Amino acid sequence: MDIILAPKKNLVLDASMLSTFCGCARNADLRFNSNLVPIAGKSNALESGSLVHTNLEYYARNRINGFSRAQSISAGMAAMQEYYHGCKECKQNDINNLEGCERHKEPFLGCHNTPTDNEKYTTGYNWIVTTMEQYHEFYKNDSWTIAGVEQVIGKVLYEDDELRILWKAKIDRLVNRNDNRGLVSMDHKTMKQNRDSVSNNHQFMGQCLVTDQREVIIDKIGFQTSLKPDEKFIRKSQSYSADRLLEWQGFILPQWGYKWLSCFESGVWEPNFNQCESKYGFCQFYKEICSADRGMREENLRIHFKIGKKWDPQSAEV
After folding, report:
1. pLDDT tens per residue, range 305-315
2. Domain ranges of the chain
3. DSSP notation for 127-155
4. Residue closest to 189 by CA, chosen among 52, 20, 15, 17
5. Which of 28, 45, 186, 302 is the most core-located residue (most Cβ within 10 A)?
6. Cα–Cα nearest to 167, from 7, 16, 3
7. Contact criterion met (CB below 8 Å) for 216 and 186
8. What are the pLDDT digits (tens) for 274-294?
9. How does DSSP classify residue 279?
């Protein structure tokens, strides 16, 4: 009698998906399976981070393409300004904001929760501009060579008889420090408070494995108004031993991968109330969904959320 083996299950994960799922399965389900996003837009913390990433992305791309440092800084500032105000063509293209212009695949409508100037607990656009001017001035003598920007790398990190996990990592910047150590990935992190980086980080360990490195450079960019540039612009190397990376790859990653599949197959995504508040504020589903009566949740989802684009590790901001 022939033995028929069940087909192997394929799972594609990135750091945002796994970190969210480890914190709260319900959050992961609503974000990555239902593709729900707040109608009110991103939080101020997320908008601030996106503005900085946009600035640094366009700066780096222009440097790679041979433009001068001054030209590249100007390009980064202009891109950040457009991200904040939105694309005029997108806004005029469709009154219902359903379609983007020829340059943008979907509407590029600007920031909604970032005021012009700083407010209590809220970072203003003008201060973000000042911060990036300070950042570029602080690193004006930077000798590192930029070799890649916003590069997505996919690699199968785990495979057994039942499961194959493809890991996607989006690298903010690949740099050569010109010290014979080769290329290393750099990850930009914005912050309002100085905190030590935690090495138990899915994103950093995944980046090391897909790039065959044991190190990530964390490029910290602070929004503190009371600190000097050398206190809020910090580049720190996060290194890992081979054993720690192997443990994450061979045990931790598949353990959570099987849990994800179990939730997907059962349709049960349990909430974890220990993750309702983080350093970035409250979970976007905390008030309207998890703190509401069960009979109100469907209505609250309809009122406060909309279906966004399907999560794509190829283009996701991490």
Report:
1. 999 888 876 55
2. 7-24+144-258, 37-142
3. HHHHHHHHHHHHTTT--PEEEEEEEEEEE
4. 52
5. 186
6. 16
7. yes
8. 889 877 678 999 999 999 999
9. T
Cα gap 214→207, rounded to integer Å: 9
Round to whole Å and give the CA distance between 180 and 183. 9
Which candidate, 52, 218, 58, places its Cα nearest to that of 123? 52
User: Which residue do the tokens 């594609």 mark?
Assistant: 12
Contact present, 289 and 270 (Cβ < 8 Å): no
Indicate the helix (H) or strand (E) that contains 47.
helix 44-64
Alpha carbons 40 and 29: distance in angstroms, whole number: 20
CA 315 vs CA 25, 29, 151, 234, 285: distances in Å: 22, 19, 9, 26, 23
pLDDT tens, 177-198?
A: 988 778 999 999 999 988 788 8
pTM: 0.89
**Maximum distance among all Cα pairs of the chain, rounded to whole angstroms:** 75
Separation of alpha carbons 178 and 7, rounded Å = 47
Q: Hey, what are 201's tokens?
A: 């980080």
**For residue 51, how far is the Cα from the chain centroid?**
12
Taking the CA atoms of 209, 159, 13 and 152 in sequence, report the sign of the dihedral they define.
positive
Residue 288 gets the label, from left (phi > 0), alpha (psi -120 to 50) or beta, of alpha
Alpha-carbon distance of 217 to 137, in angstroms, equals 20
Here the tokens at position 262 are: 């179990």
HEC per residue, 84-119:
HHCCHHHHHHCCCCCCCCCCCCCCCCCCCCCCCCCE
Contact present, 29 and 294 (Cβ < 8 Å): no
**How many Å separate Cα 66 from the centre of its chain?**
27
- C-alpha 185/C-alpha 238 separation (Å) is 11
Count CB-CB contacts under 10 A for residue 48. Answer: 26
The residue type of 172 is D
On whether the CB atoms of residues 300 and 288 are closer than 8 A, the answer is: yes
CB 172 within 8 A of CB 184: no
pLDDT of residue 317: 46
